[in-house]
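Re: weekly structure request thread

Next one in the queue (289 aa):
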Amino acid sequence: MSNVFLPTYLIGLREGLEATLVVTILVAFLVKTDRRDRLRYVWTGVGVAAALSVGFAAVLQYTSAHLEFERQELFEAVTSILAVAFVTWMIFWMRRAARSISGDLRARLDAAIALGPLAVVVTAFLAVAREGLETALIFFATVQGATSTWSVAAILTGIATSIVLGFLMYRSALRINLTRFFTWTGVLLVLVAAGIFKYGVHDLLEAGVLPGLNDLAFDISGTLPPTTWYAELLRGTLNFTPAPTVLETVAWLAYAIPVLVLFLLPHRARAAAPAPAPAPTPVPTGSDR
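Done, posted below.
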């Protein structure tokens, strides 16, 4: 089995569950307000968003495959860094917006229904397309260099799992502590993103944009032979290699440590604005008497 199965499955599960939750909120709102006739517009928007995401992934793969070596490395470096930016934004955004996302989506869909069917399609499309495009970009960055088809199977399995979980939650047959789920998967995704960032720096080195391709930070190939299964597992999940360059090591640490610390810090809700201080009571002086 490919060493990219676990991180790719995790990406499919996490991104798929976010999209599934969005669809579940939209569908539940229409069903509970007796507007089932609008469901087909929601499914149309979801279908167009899914097709766009698959097409975007195909365009990335096609573009990368038809570039010269150095341009291909530069292209993959840019997509890797973009994927890291999306992952970072996504995990912090979900932590902040999780409590209000349901109300926001219902308000937007209610306003779209008043405008007409096309507005409902666009609302569903925009809600799902963001997750789909993120998934396509992160998937491409994760499986760069993978020669096995297990990566495709892994992300499809992750998405299928998220759909099953979303359906069970919709039917109230399953209750998940979403705060805990997104916290744990967020930590794992930060580590995966650190590996993607290291991969992006490696591509910049190979493209000649950065110096130091042969400057190794350390070499533990004797202790961790690259051909062993556990070395492959570490490389596939965290992009930890036994002989990284100095810049790759600095990039991994410079991303993983501060982002993990910020992500694990207790999330504090925005404090309410302080009430205006009461007007000071005039103090009588001797001249007032």
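The CA atoms of residues 65 and 72 lie 7 Å apart. Residues 69-97 form the longest helix (29 residues).
Next request, please.
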